Amino acid sequence: MIHFKHISLIVFLVVCPMFLMGQTQPQVTAETKNSFIIKGFVRESETYIPLKNVNIHGNLGSYAASNLAGEFKIEVRIGDELIISHKDFETIYYTVTSDDDLTIDVRPAEGNQPSALNANKQSPSFSSLLDSALVYKNTSAEKSIQFITQSISKSNSTAQNARAFEVLADVYTHWKQYDLAVSNYRISLNSNKKSSVELKLAKGYYFNKNYQESIALYQHLIKEKGTTSDRAEVYEGLGDVFSKTKQHQKAITAYQLGLTIAKKQLITTKVTDLNSKIAEAYNASGAINEAGNYYKNALNLATKENKQRAIKEKIKVADFNSANRAYKVEIKLRKESLQDIQDIEADTIIDNASDYTLQKQNYKIGNAYYLQQKYEAAIPYLQRSIVEADKREDLVVEKDAKRKLSEVYRDAGDFEKALKAYEEYTQSVEKLYLKKEQQITQASRFSRNIAAQQNRIESLESDRELSESKYHLNQEQNKLQTLIIYSLIGGVLLLLLAAYVMYKFIKQQKLANNLLALKSLRSQMNPHFIFNALNSVNSFIATNDERAANKYLSDFSKLMRAVLENSEENFIPLTKEIELIELYTKLEHFRFKDKFEYVIEIDKNIEILDYNIPPMLLQPYIENAVWHGLRYKKEKGELRIAIYKKTANAITISITDNGIGRDKSKALKTDNQKKQNSKGMGNIKKRVSILNAMYKDTLDVSISDLNMEDGTGTQVLVTLKKH
User: Which domain of life is it from (predicted)?
Assistant: First the structure.
């Protein structure tokens, strides 16, 4: 008999289920990356009566509705988010973790049922609501904001109102919604001016990249009386802004002033932090010796505080030595850190985002050995990094470690293991893409919920002010007309402020979503060329043509390194892209010398340095020309790549081949080839569309037959504007 695990979710209409943010995504394995059908059942929790016509949506675009028996089936993948909605209960968000059957118990809201927030207390106080908000601040943004919303409705003074908006801004700061944090700190200061809130606002400006506003506010706080106790923190914050804007000497001066105050007031943790930051500023300015001295001071001080602070500083110093090629010192510090991290993890869970995780430190030790060409020493640390990353579901480090392991095996001459490691790396890239795709959906929902709750809070604030206005109108009848005018002006200003905040938030969220989408598209490396190239290496080795294999692999590794270095950028200089396509075309010609010759022409009148282009935009078109046009041509063909001026502010890049043409090539393709080509071209179209939306139609791509009469040859024209 087969037993299925049932997962029950009790949901109230008045309580929004919030368990998505901060939830660890399940690891997607090779066996579960494909979709499957999951069965589910929806019922009322107390009577167990099945609920029909419940809507179920999945990430794959799949949809299902429960039948009369409350049952449904829907196509999903591990890690997908199911959205379960109905008019009689609050929408449920459930993350798929297995293929077990799913049972969903729901409890419809009753007319007189008190909210879950008020179940134990009929009328909680302002202070208790704010305390509850602080409890959930680090675990659930949405739940914390709900408590703050209730506290604002309970507020009966400007001091309480200011405190509520300060806590709200603190929540937004923790969840990295810095523009909303800035807005709410300012609202708090409008009700009650406090230097501690001004200090938070200055930090909020810094995180939101409003650097000039941050500098002005920090300088104002330095001049203010009564901020002596916070003066070290003020100078530290000012130094952070100067460091971020690359004003290193000003940063050092600000940090040293803060260090003097911290020493005088015996703030030991601040003394350690400022020594470390002074070291970073000196290092950034090129003063390596001074940086080394301050790092030494910071490390000595950190070891006297606690193990966690010592690890943090050891890793900073290790990074400093790595940047300056002092690999032996780096390795020694990182090995010491490994044992300390294991000791800390016995009592504390270290998040993958932290710099001091076992997988990251093992990877960096392996990389340090690799840079010294000590390949045998590097391999076990990279393998440990992969194991730890897999165990902790850190796909980013797992991907990087597998790629580095492939490079180590390659440079050590073990090409078979290098190929295997590289194949595992590409699988990790696919897993990471799937996870990013799921995170985009989750982030979008989180943003919508946050925006809705912020609107609710601003409406409450507006209502509160209007209520106060009505109260004063009743008390002072002789000022009725004046107070009405002021109330209307205040209401209009609040609405304008709300509209401005929403516009800014939506615009920033759209930009963030576009950047995340671009990053996801860039992470999809086309394995077609990589695997074919490595197969070519195998064929060279099989024919004992070791020299050709080494030459080909050397050029291939240069191309891959350049591609990976540029993979995080939306645009790169056109000169770099030309170098990439020259190297790529050279590799393709090396493999198909008997099939085509190629020419790359660049108009001398073009100022190449004035133009930027998305990385590896041209490579897929060149690959199509070679693999689907020239490769099937009986006689030797020609590939011509030309860059010429179109207008004063635009150039055209032409990729022309005299191959068999698109129609004949399409007829020769297998179903799998058609699918792969469609996906590759689709990704390029998506990239061009997103970039044009973000940068005002910078690119234009057109594809046409070279010879209209017989359909042979293909011409791709890419128009690029100055950016």
Answer: Bacteria
